[in-house]
Prior knowledge:
This protein is 36% helix and 11% strand. By secondary structure, the chain is of the alpha+beta class. It has a 3-stranded antiparallel β-sheet. Residues 1-7 have low confidence and may be disordered. Belongs to the WhiB family.
Amino acid sequence: MTLSTLTSAVASRPAQESGIPCRDYDAELWFAERPSDVEYAKALCQDCPFRASCLEGALERREPWGVWGGQLLVQGVVVARKRPRGRPRKDAVYAA
């Protein structure tokens, strides 16, 4: 599916009734800072009819960040999940 076909399909449906999550929900959700919000956006994408073409296009464009096609992209590549800001937690160290 080409970008023009996707755009035409989206434009022909009214907002909030499109069946396309990124049109039906606040767009900021797909660029959220909180990992739980990112996971929610990824879950919303699972039933989207344009999921595969969305991800394919984002990978071709090397999108710098955001949820595209149900996957999180960081610097143009898919990453498993978003890490929260700050330093990672240290694992407990046990003295032998």
